[in-house]
Design goal:
- The structure is a single chain.
- With 92 residues, this protein is an all-alpha fold.
- It is 48% helix and 0% strand.
- It has 4 helices and no strands.
- It has helices at 2-19, 40-47, 50-53, 68-81.
- The longest helix is centred in the first third of the chain and has 18 residues, at 2-19.
- The protein is globular and about 45 Å long.
Length: 92
């Protein structure tokens, strides 16, 4: 059992390294302030990563300083935790 856990931890570390995440972000750390207009139930749905298995993309838009990069990193981190590969790329 210890060996299995060790191997899975190594796989997770490799997925996170390949993802090239810019921040240490997780979905549990999201601040749901009113000015950000984030819906907790929608974020809970995204955290299940059904969008990955359905081959959908996520586009995060909004004003400067609202946490778009944090959200992207948190979603990629969650995908890696669930065994998916991810890659963080910032555009523009």
């Amino acid at each position: 059992e210890k060996e299995v856990i060790s191997r899975e931890n190594k796989r997770l570390a490799a997925r996170l390294k390949r993802a090239k995440l810019q921040q240490s972000a997780c979905l549990e750390d999201i601040d749901y302030q009113a000015r950000r207009n984030l819906d907790k139930s929608f974020m809970a749905t995204l955290s299940e990563c059904q969008w990955v298995t359905s081959h959908h993309n996520i586009l995060i838009v909004g004003p400067t300083g609202t946490g778009k990069s944090f959200l992207a990193n948190a979603l990629a981190h969650k995908a890696c935790l669930l065994g998916y590969t991810a890659y963080y790329a910032r555009l523009g």
